Amino acid sequence: MENMNTYIPKEISWLSFNARVLQEASDKSVPLIERVRFLGIYSSNQDEFFKVRVADLKRQIIINKEKGNSEETAKLLRKVQSTTSDYQKVMNKIYNDLLDELAKKKIFLKDENQINEEQKKWIKSYFKRHVLKHIRPVIVTESIDLVSFLKDQYTYLLVKMFNKKGDTYALIEIPSDTVPRFIRMPSDTEGETTLMFLDNVIRIGLDTIFKGYFDYDNIEAYSIKMNRDAEYDLQSSVDKGVLETMSDSLKQRLNAKPVRFAYDRAMPKDIVEFMAGKLKMSEIDSLMPGNRYHNFKDFLSFPSVGSDDMENPSLPSIHSTAFDLAATPFEAIAQKDILLYYPYYSFEYFTEVLRQASYDPKVRSIKINIYRVASNSRVIDSLIDAANNGKRVTVVVELKARFDEANNIQWASRLTNAGVKVLFGLPTLKIHSKLCLITRKENGKTVRYAHIGTGNFNEKTAKIYTDFALFTVNPQITAEVENVFEFIEYPYTRPHFSNLLVSPINARKRIYAMIDREIENALTGLPSYINFKVNNLVDLGIVDRLYKASQAGVKIRAVVRGMCSLRPGIEGLSDNIYITSIVDRFLEHPRVMIFCNNNNPELYISSADWMTRNLDYRIEVGAPVLDADLRDRINTIFRIQCNDNQKARIIDKDQKNEYVKAGENAVPVRSQIAIHTYLQQLESKLYTEKTKNQDTASNKKNSK
């Protein structure tokens, strides 16, 4: 295990990131309903953390026990568990504080003991009409295998029925996928909004469920939730196709071992022990007492109630002058490279490119990577339309996109049935690049149009994730994009890339070389700096290179949203490195690298984080931004983020998550809002200039 004095373990750093999300839930400058929803983001993140990272630690301990060296990993797991427990207490306090603040706004979240008889009567009626048909109790007997029965991440009520002859236990799944988690009931005072958890609606209906079938003197219910290990093995077979193999492998996840059991802390100790035994929880698993409710991720869909100022005001989508003033998107891209920054710009610009390409007679072929797409994907629809119109359509579907595997299997089947050529990439490499290549026949010549991005082709996430999308017709770049698709289809080839950074072929080597060049320039007195923005910085090879650069005097400025194993600000090691993290209304997602290069900067956008998996075990693509105007635009956006003094936290050597403080006379800068203003003003200026030029050209033509 790495030296914790030099590196921060990625698991601890990830918990620090999620603590920044929790800070948003407690930040009174954030609209109240948005703060409630941040609890949902925190909870959803925490679930995935246990399913993936804690499960991985558990596997490491089991494997290392055989080798006799599991203590360091076990120590880290204990640290993770204690830190998580501490944050759970913080979350519970924030939740209670939010309930008080909602109450001041006349919004009440009540339980079964806080409502009057009229409301209880209404709830019982609602339960019978809307909920009861979804209730399927399972009686807990000695023979039942709860490990196989309980679904991952679902909340259950563990019901205990008492009588003199003995106790009977039953499990009820909270059907929040078919019934809203928050039920709005009539209020007893005008102007009030009263909500109740679906869990409590079911508690009120317990007698309706069990009376007449079981004899009991008393009945009570406690909330529980279990998380499973999200890993699975891909067992290949010559008798099975790729889709069948993947489907069979996903079934392993349904029966994977539990890694966390969360329960109502009011649950009696004997019931906790009973459930731990039934779930075969070991000493390295996480038994976590919590409050009465689990699956706080449902707070992501907390209803819009109250006044408008309780939610973020919408930001109008910015119009792309380049696309809007061109007759077709291909004409726009042919004139000049175009850079979009979601969600400030609408993702519809990309979906329109595909829609028009699907019937454009000049278009010969479309190639695209699919990692995660929206449930009602216009991208998929346009690809199928293109195939129906006789275009050669190739779609690379990544079946191992975690938690989207089942969806992608369905997309692959639908595309295949529509006559689309579907590739599944490589067994050993996830394909995470964000590429689309459209080939047209123009005046007898083949012309390629490429999209290279930092985010998925997903209409839904493009509304909440910030991401760059570069559209180019540059022949050197587009030819190399074609080579990436060729490499995916024919992995035994090893194409050469002079412009693109392609993992696992040349990305690590080229990044090392650019860092080393900055080191050499610093040592010889030439200008040097490294600016970068990533989601995660945990590859120790990169971290060590950055430490070396700092020691050589290279100034390094970074914005890292999530995990960061590098410890900034250590004298003699990293005192030239300053890192901040921004957590705000949008999820920061782009990856950008800017190298001084003796005042001749090189700037790249990329799909790859600085993680070992992204550099060595995935196909990722980074592209140089060659257009000077677009480089200036990205540099300005990066500077705005570096000047954020409202939503930026300092990533220091101790992971304290302290906010960047504005100076006494400093102008407040909330970067996500400031970037929207900057881009809006930029496009307004470009529109004025371009329409003026078009009018001038038109007048000259008419005068002739």
Give a quick summary of the entry.
The protein is α/β, with parallel strands linked by helices and 704 residues long. Helices cover 40% and strands 21% of the residues.
Describe this protein's structure.
This protein has 20 helices and 27 strands. The strands form 4 sheets. Strands 14, 18, 19, 20, 21, 23, 24, 25, 26 and 27 form a 10-stranded mixed beta sheet that branches. Strands 10, 11, 12, 13, 15, 16, 17 and 22 form an 8-stranded mixed beta sheet that branches. Strands 2-4-3-7-8-9 form a 6-stranded mixed beta sheet. Strand 11 (363-370), helix 13 (378-388) and strand 12 form a beta-alpha-beta unit. The radius of gyration is 28 Å and the shape is globular. The chain starts with 9 loop residues before the first helix and ends with a helix. Mean pLDDT is 89; it is low at 232-255.
Poorly predicted sequence stretches spanning 5 or more consecutive residues: 232-255
Quickly give the structural class: alpha/beta
Largest sheet: 10 strands, mixed
Q: Could you tell me the mean pLDDT?
A: 89
Distance N terminus to C terminus? 77 Å
| Gyration radius from CA atoms, angstroms | 28 Å
Q: Give the helix proportion (percent range).
A: 40-55%
Oligomeric state, counting identical vs distinct chains: single chain
Beta content: 15-25%
Number of strands: 27
Globally, the shape reads globular
H/I helix tally? 20
